DNA sequence: CCGGATCCTCGGTGATACTG
DNA sequence: CAGTATCACCGAGGATCCGG
């Protein structure tokens, strides 16, 4: 692991910590909440098991993630972002925003996971437009993921799990919902693909405004 | 170069383009302006020549950088960021901001370059504090780099080269100036280390406010 | 079934030398 | 100056196996 730049530069320092292959994708997975080893392997799709184990060790010793044993009866270990690890979120969302601009719309054999919705929503959120808004929204891929966006006085919080009194609820399959957050699928197309959109129509307009095209 | 994630995710897509070793550091170099092959090699400190050539080829075919032949008499080729390459700047500054928080203050054998000041200033700039401000500042490492920060109605522009009518001019050696932009060296310490600070004292206060600690 | 460890192969990286 | 050529090496990829 002597493959570090060792330069006195913020960017080089950041890349010395999370620049290795798979490292930032592990952070992406944990941005959706604590996750077990096996869930991480599934969310990362094609990561070799030994590489995942090595990265988790490195990220833990860098203080970016933490292991925690769940209380019995659910005795299993989960990984989660530390406070310092959460500080990576602005950088991860900025990279994702860039990537979404050049992401091919079609999904030919390209794997996707419903919980990536969390990052997609964070990346598209526009704080300047949200301003003083306070409202919550809920997104569901039946049987796979339930994601909530809660905006409190312009500040967003994206989590796995239900929203309290969502102004809008959108239920669709993963490609449709991801396509909506990426701007390649509009509500009309989503409805044609079997999506269910319920709630306040004016809130749906606001939702589209605070999640502008990347 | 089949080492791509191939996932339908903005972050994975971004890393497929600039996730390989040295790629983002090349972007850092070009954020200080167009640069020749040899200058890139010097700014990246320890990059193998074949790797630099390979990355430049990849970044060019990805549309992130462009080669350009300078007009005679200065007949040489330079590399520069394309429009799409400039779109990486928010992500690079966000990563640098994270890295600056965990960057060890001392520089024991860790190499640095004066033009990294450009990224350091961009990373520390706080748009919320700058608000409606319009003012310019100049930073100089004698014989190595001259950097200007020009704020127009709250929007920053950081360039190599002199500022027009700077409200403040700071002249110091590279470690002192980099330390100031990283928050580890305050003006008093800088003066003790031989720095020259000239201009409007109230503008110096404003400068410290729009470049808060990362 | 979970959470890895182990073994092997292959290709990218690092270091250096060389050339138009 | 702007790369290309060569080679050793180590980390990624892929599969399998193992203890709790």
How would you portray this structure in words?
The structure is a homodimer of 214-residue chains. In chain A, helix 6 crosses helix 7 and helix 7 runs parallel beside helix 9. The first copy, chain A, is globular and about 55 Å long. The first copy, chain A, has a five-stranded mixed β-sheet with strand order 6-5-4-7-8. The two termini of chain A are 36 Å apart. The model of chain A has no long low-confidence stretch (mean pLDDT 94). Chain A is α+β, with helices and mostly antiparallel strands and 214 residues long. Chain A is built from eleven helices and eight strands. The longest helix of chain A is centred in the middle third of the chain and has 14 residues. At the A-B interface, helix 1, helix 2, helix 6 and helix 7 of A face helix 1, helix 2, helix 6 and helix 7 of B. Chain B binds a DNA duplex (20 and 20 nucleotides) through helix 3 and helix 4.
């Amino acid at each position: 692991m002597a493959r570090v730049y060792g330069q006195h530069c913020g960017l080089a320092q950041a890349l010395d910590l999370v620049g290795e292959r798979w490292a930032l994708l592990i952070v992406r997975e944990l941005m959706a909440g604590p996750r077990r080893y096996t869930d991480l392997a599934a969310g990362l799709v094609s990561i070799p098991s030994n590489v995942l184990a090595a990265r988790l060790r490195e990220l833990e010793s860098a203080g970016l993630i933490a292991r925690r044993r769940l209380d019995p009866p659910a005795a299993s270990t989960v990984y989660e972002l530390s406070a310092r690890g959460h500080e990576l979120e602005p950088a991860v969302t900025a990279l994702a925003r860039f990537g979404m601009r050049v992401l091919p719309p079609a999904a030919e054999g390209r794997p996707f996971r419903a919980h990536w919705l969390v990052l997609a929503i964070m990346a598209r959120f526009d704080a300047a437009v949200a301003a003083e808004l306070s409202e919550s929204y809920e997104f569901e891929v039946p049987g796979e993921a339930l994601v909530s966006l809660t905006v409190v006085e312009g500040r967003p919080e994206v989590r796995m799990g239900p929203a309290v009194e969502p102004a809008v609820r959108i239920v669709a399959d993963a490609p449709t919902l991801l396509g909506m957050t990426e701007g390649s699928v509009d509500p009309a197309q989503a409805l044609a693909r079997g999506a269910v959109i319920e709630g306040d129509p004016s809130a749906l307009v606001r939702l589209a405004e605070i999640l502008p095209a990347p």
